Amino acid sequence: TMLGVVTTDALVTSDIWREIVRISVNRSFNQITVDGDTSTNDCVIALASGISGSTKIYSLDCYEARQLQACLDAVMQGLAKSIAWDGEGATCLIEVTVSGANNEAEAAKFARSVASSSLVKAAVYGRDPNWGRIACAVGYAGIDFNPNDLNISLGSISLMNSGQPRQFDRAAASSYLRQAGETHGTVEIHISVGAHQGSGKAWGCDLSYDYVKINAEYTT
Amino acid sequence: VRSDMGIDSNHIPAAPILLPEGPWTQIAGGVTAAKGFKAAGIYGGLRAKGEKPDLALVTCDVDAVSAGAFTKNIVAAAPITYCRKVLDASSLARAVLINAGQANAATGDAGYQDTIECANAVAELLRLSPEAVFIQSTGVIGQRIKKEALLNSLPKLMGSLSSTVEGGDSAAVAITTTDLVSKSVAIETKIGGTPIRIGGMAKGSGMIHPNMA
């Protein structure tokens, strides 16, 4: 289960606050995954006291609203990433960035499909730069795209370009994954699916033996 | 796992917060960083094992504009159903009570009644209307909350409320379950030239694939 409580002293109307929170939740908590199980209790409550003395925000279509949105996105993404980083049994955070999609929502769906893949997660734990599993998870995201436009990179190492597998330094790619695991760091997976403007991110973690151990012992 | 890592069961370290870069400054604290908010976390005897804090409260000195996102899981816990109704009934709120240990999910009408009684108790002690109080629960699914322990702990919890960083940190620890780290962050920026703050806390480690609306 994930819970969140967010507070601000910005001054904002109820309707705008609820919309800003909705957007931020979609860009953060709804873009994380550890084990694919959606809890009965997931909940975020966000309260705005309004006592900072700032300009009251009445509309989404103003500079101040965009500022507040960006700040709330940052706070919620920071918290969301820390949940994925702390995933049960995890040795590293996985950050999937998708660009070139038709829109933000489709990019987000591609990203989460990859972050959710048990086989991608297990490959990361196994320090296996398995571009095939990543490509597979992009393919079943439920969004149409041209596979010849698919690019995949692991950190700065290009694994697939224009739908074609590339020759890459397998040892270096594996070392990149190993180093992230040994330092509980971040594995970056960059994916491009076309030439459009939609981009999005999702966060997950690797899948280790400890995940099963923890949940075999945590009774429901 | 925590035992294997040699971590004290009553206190857990803070998570490294990977905050995106932008026109803001990360500051100390979490839910208490913004003006008007207090928080506390205490051990209320709800957890099955250990004495790590398990009961948290966040309050606002004034009526705060409220928003919420809730799991779309059709088998939603009693606090989720309750909070949806609160959010529908009012655009303002003053408090969030959170317990760790029992999720109060799949507990039927009795579990829902427990949630109402907890919200009413908080409202009464803080002299608020029940619609101003949100409830969150986390822990073992299928178990009702240890209501008597919770209700008996409320006076101490309210006496511990603080607007300090420590108040926010104690609340962030109290909401954890299998988490190995607590999650708390705050930033400051300017809106229209006026400094504003946003802070938050979260918990989560397993059963994580949120789909909230």
* Fraction of residues in β-strands of chain B: 25-35%
Helix content of chain B: 25-40%
Low-confidence stretches of chain A: none
Q: What sequence of helices (H) and strands (E) makes up the elements of chain A?
A: EHEHEHHHEEEHEEH
Distance between the termini of chain A: 13 Å
Helix-strand makeup class of chain A: alpha/beta
Outline of chain A, from the CA principal axes? globular
Mean pLDDT of chain B comes to 94
Main sheet summary of chain A: 6 strands, mixed
E-strand count of chain A: 8
Q: In percent, how helical is the residue content of chain A?
A: 40-55%
| Tally of strands of chain B | 7
Termini separation of chain B comes to 33 Å
What is the strand arrangement across the widest sheet of chain A?
6-5-4-7-3-8
Number of helical segments with 4 or more residues of chain B: 4
- Tell me the overall shape of chain B: globular
